[in-house]
Design brief:
The protein is of the alpha/beta class. The chain has helices at 24-33, 49-58, 71-82, 95-103, 127-138, 162-173, 185-195, 206-216, 248-259, and strands spanning 4-8, 15-16, 19-20, 37-42, 68-70, 88-92, 107-109, 116-119, 142-145, 151-154, 157-160, 178-179, 198-203, 220-223, 243-245. The strands form four sheets. It has a six-stranded parallel beta sheet with strand order 5-4-1-13-14-15, sandwiched between helices. Strands 7-6-8-9-12 form a five-stranded parallel beta sheet, with helices on both faces. Strands 2-3 form a two-stranded antiparallel sheet. Helix 2 links the parallel strand 4 and strand 5. Helix 3 crosses helix 7 (185-195) and helix 5 (127-138) crosses helix 6 (162-173). The longest helix has 12 residues, at 71-82. The chain is globular and about 55 Å long.
């Protein structure tokens, strides 16, 4: 799909954990009312697409499945470039990765032997899973991480992210992963294929979302409602991105003023 798109991160922009960020849904509604197309891209690979559709809906944001892209989908697409359907994939990850790799015809396993390993965020990671995953990587399985974000924003502060899990697997296996999600090129390829070549990236993490905007050669819009927080000047890069606001509700008018004319 072509045309200009407002590509919006989820964690730290729409919600923190299971708590909605005040005004975020209103911000999406403002953007859409001004004629701007809004899509969603998340590095959080833990949930299936239907779960994201339902969660957005519960917070007052209608979204179709094809408006949501995830690092799990980017990882599965990266794997599918060189790995034939039917290959065994050890998913050290949540339901989003399982859904994405199965959609490409791979067989999901929880222990070796495996042709590939995909590591993503999930809350059940433990020592036994670390051992099984590292063993598979050391035995020659292709090693892909959905992303390397060390944390992600929860309702009461930062929580360990997929990057923390991948760091454990990397240390235990002695191997470095291929990385699929923001800010890496596989995620950019997914966004361009799904949403087009022209847009703006909204996010709460300059090191990931801002770097991803640079990968896409798009403007970056920073909200201070997630990893980057209000009142912490050190969270805003120097020089600052083109757009900075406390949250999506405050950001929306800035984007409307700048980009409403770009929408087909």
């Amino acid at each position: 799909m072509g045309g200009f798109v407002v590509c919006c991160d989820l964690d730290g922009v729409l919600w923190r954990g299971d708590v909605a960020i005040p005004g975020a849904a209103a911000g999406v509604q403002q953007l859409r009312a001004a004629g701007l197309r809004v899509a969603f891209l998340t590095n959080n690979s833990g949930a299936r697409v239907a779960d994201y559709v339902a969660k957005l809906g519960s917070f007052g944001v209608d979204a179709a499945p094809d408006e949501i892209a995830t690092s799990a989908q980017a990882a599965a697409a990266l794997l599918a470039r060189d790995t034939p359907p039917g290959a065994r994939v050890l998913a050290c990850a949540g339901g989003g990765v399982i859904e994405a790799v199965e959609a490409h015809g791979f067989v999901v396993v929880d222990r070796g032997p495996a042709d590939a390993v995909v590591v993503g965020w999930h809350q059940t990671f433990d020592y036994d899973e670390l051992k099984r995953t590292a063993d598979a990587v050391r035995d020659g399985a292709r090693y892909i991480a959905t992303n390397l974000d060390p944390t992600y924003p929860g309702p009461d502060g930062l929580l360990p992210g997929a990057g923390s899990i991948a760091a454990a697997v990397t240390t235990a296996s002695g191997c470095q992963p291929e990385v699929a999600g923001k800010p890496w090129p596989p995620a950019a390829e997914l966004v361009r294929a799904r949403f087009g070549d022209d847009g703006v990236m909204i996010g709460d993490r300059p090191s990931t979302d801002g770097a991803f905007a640079a990968t896409l050669d798009w403007p970056f819009a920073l909200v201070l409602s997630g990893v980057a927080g209000p009142g912490r000047e050190e969270d805003v890069p120097d020089p600052p991105p083109p757009f900075v606001a406390a949250d999506l509700r405050e950001l929306a008018p800035l984007l409307i003023e700048e980009f409403a004319g770009h929408s087909p």
